């Protein structure tokens, strides 16, 4: 049922790939746009809003991940940017997660390169010195959920058609240890265990209940609520907040940092297995049939 | 009060030691029975139901533990068995836990052999590749609670006369670190701390509230609810589920596996102490008086 | 807002520094009094009540910490003392936490001495063999919250004007790893993360909700509720309870014990920084203005 719900969510999105990216630029704003990201950086408030606009469902391909990482790097280095809100310009979806096409029928080298980019995004987001808020205005399975969990705070649209969760197991693949630890740090060990074993996707109300998101608001208020919350967070003494955040997360970050190469090998060995490739093929065929 | 409740539960059981083990056998079933275990293995569904029927209260003696371990080993090796439901054929009790008679007045060697069997059962259950569901149709103190916690999912009879918990402290003994870690993984650190320090037994509603069990159902529906849940779990891609389960539990399992001998020594030294033997004697006398 | 609430709480206290320490002495009581502590030790029940009476707000100065440590040491050694209740004789405040005056404009040596006393108090309380109950009859920010969290059980006055939490970040300083771990052990990782990053102070109802306190009672019943709870805890087999408590806490305790010197250096280097001293000065000026 979780699977069907996930498919429904994803497919309903891919039918219309239009962008809502009408960017309003004021003089004090420093807006950069790449193909799939629109960044509104308000220099007055020190807050950047990163709109993901990679049609149809913000799947995290190698290219898109690379764009995201470059943008994060720039914002992190920019002293004028103290807060980051991540949201989606695509209708009904925040991000559909890792792009399956990057894992199917690819060479081990390419798979490794892809995985390194996934690691890089996680390291940049989970370890960011900025205040990071996920404005989850649509479904957020797998890698989309991971991105959300790296943030300091999660606000989700209160629409029961959306869902969020690490549902990798339903695709026959396995969330790596650092996905797992990010989730344990968010919702505890038992919720993570049952969630990952069953590949659960949670409706917004359920997600709030287990602490997977922090707040639900009506769909049209997700971004404004994120902006309001950001103001509160930016009022906190910055240096102390940053050291505290680092203290809470450094052991998890350190574990991946000191095992990146092994983690890549692990992923490549697993994903290139005949049986896993077959699982992914079946999953994609199911997606196509749903679409037709 | 917890103690009195536990005694009441246990004693009310031991007064009638009859078995409800009327086994219905169909051609597609592979039913094995040993003295104290009845296993219904449905080859069609791949689900085995293990009925504990060691009168009066399914106390985990060395013999009974050995039977359980042999049965678990067989089922684990059997490719046709993918799911295991553990339940009780004894009225009003799931399992009363470790058999006190195995800890009282026994030689250190015998105590060590007993403890090794407890470890073995835990290792087999907590690390099982099968989907394991506890159908808790009666009280489940101490070792009974441990067995339940090793499972992937816990369904308990919604009868306020039943209780569940690691109440070792009330007997003057101490839950070892791997009991503790299993509980921390289930209900978190603080619930475990207060629970173990006070030797708490929880009513079903309280157990549900802290996450010690996952679901309450009317008493006569425990097994059918477990069967329904099992169907959902078996629909999950198996290999990914197994790897995920192992990822969640392996650090806890590894900690015992690499410390078995020391853990046995620890237990034997503790349990054979004069003061602890006296505690156990007093506890047993209290049980007898209650009975009379 | 949290900050303002904290200030309001603290300032309203400092305006009247009177003591409520009218000690009633019976023959079976062994009451010791130092300048800022009144200890009622009931030899019959084995319970000592430690009243903090350091005006105006029980700030933990080096002198006061030293008094507390000496008292704890004595009680711990006294076989006749099995339970300790910690409460406040000051109106509206349990303890305002670490004394800022000990961190402002002091030599590195003095800062180090101060921090060593903070460590010592935590080590003594978190590792105590006694049953420890915090009778939180007023606001309990920062170090006051830490003291509360070291106890086995926390009962708070159900008065929405009081609050509790580790709000160090709001002062521009950082809770060290052992404050953090004590909180994670109490309310879990995510609650701790958001709580420490924002320097949150919780109203009693919120504190109960996240598990930061265990029970709320009307303000005039805090001490009697603590006494009742103590009776239940003292009925638990003592040796087993102590070993269990130690098992739950020893890894956290060990981490500080084996890093005391580095932790002191860390604190001294941080607190003597120009920028941190400036933060503290601004905070104290804000306190003064509020007062005036």
UniProtKB/TrEMBL annotation, chains A, B, C:
EC top class named in words: isomerase
GO CC field: mitochondrial matrix
Keyword annotations of the record: Acetylation, Fatty acid metabolism, Isomerase, Lipid metabolism, Mitochondrion, Transit peptide
UniProt xrefs under SUPFAM superfamilies: ClpP/crotonase
Gene3D superfamilies according to UniProt: 2-enoyl-CoA Hydratase, Chain A, domain 1 (3.90.226.10), 6.10.250.170
Localization (cell): Mitochondrion matrix
CDD domains noted in UniProt: crotonase-like
Pfam short name (any one): ECH_1
Entry EC no(s): 5.3.3.8
Reactions this protein catalyses: a (3E)-enoyl-CoA = a 4-saturated (2E)-enoyl-CoA; (2E)-tetradecenoyl-CoA = (3Z)-tetradecenoyl-CoA; (3Z)-decenoyl-CoA = (2E)-decenoyl-CoA; (3Z)-dodecenoyl-CoA = (2E)-dodecenoyl-CoA
Pathway entry: Lipid metabolism; fatty acid beta-oxidation
GO biological process entries: fatty acid beta-oxidation
Record flagged with keyword Acetylation: yes
Keyword Cytoplasm: no
PROSITE patterns linked: ENOYL_COA_HYDRATASE
Molecular function terms from GO: delta(3)-delta(2)-enoyl-CoA isomerase activity
Main function: Key enzyme of fatty acid beta-oxidation. Able to isomerize both 3-cis (3Z) and 3-trans (3E) double bonds into the 2-trans (2E) form in a range of enoyl-CoA species, with a preference for (3Z)-enoyl-CoAs over (3E)-enoyl-CoAs. The catalytic efficiency of this enzyme is not affected by the fatty acyl chain length.
Similarity-based family: Belongs to the enoyl-CoA hydratase/isomerase family.
Subunit structure: Homotrimer.
Name of the protein: Enoyl-CoA delta isomerase 1, mitochondrial
Lineage of the organism: Eukaryota, Metazoa, Chordata, Craniata, Vertebrata
């Amino acid at each position: 049922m979780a699977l069907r719900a996930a498919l429904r969510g994803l497919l309903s999105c891919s039918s219309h790939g239009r962008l809502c990216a009408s960017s309003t630029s004021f003089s004090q704003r420093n807006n950069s746009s790449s193909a799939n990201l629109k960044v509104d950086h308000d220099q007055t408030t020190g807050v950047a809003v990163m709109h993901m606009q990679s049609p149809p469902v913000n799947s995290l391909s190698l290219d898109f991940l690379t764009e995201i990482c470059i943008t994060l790097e720039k914002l992190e280095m920019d002293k004028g940017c103290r807060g980051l809100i991540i949201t989606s310009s695509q209708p009904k979806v925040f991000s559909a997660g890792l792009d399956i096409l990057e894992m199917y029928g690819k060479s081990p080298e390419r798979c490794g390169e892809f995985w390194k980019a996934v690691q890089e995004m996680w390291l940049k987001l989970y370890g960011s010195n900025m205040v990071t808020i996920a404005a989850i205005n649509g479904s957020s399975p797998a890698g989309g959920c991971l991105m959300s969990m790296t943030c300091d705070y999660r606000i989700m649209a209160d629409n029961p058609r959306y869902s969020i969760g690490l549902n990798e197991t339903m695709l026959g693949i396995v969330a790596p240890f650092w996905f797992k630890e990010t989730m344990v740090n968010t919702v505890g060990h038992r919720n993570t265990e049952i969630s990952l074993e069953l590949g659960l996707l949670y409706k917004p109300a359920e997600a709030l209940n287990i602490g997977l998101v922090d707040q639900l608001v009506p769909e049209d208020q997700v971004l404004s609520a994120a902006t309001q919350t950001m103001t509160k967070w930016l009022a906190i003494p910055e240096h102390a907040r940053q050291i505290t955040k680092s203290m809470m997360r450094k052991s998890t970050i350190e574990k991946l940092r000191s095992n990146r190469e092994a983690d890549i090998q692990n992923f490549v060995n697993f994903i290139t297995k005949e049986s896993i490739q077959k699982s992914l093929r079946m999953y994609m065929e199911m997606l196509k049939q749903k679409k037709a």
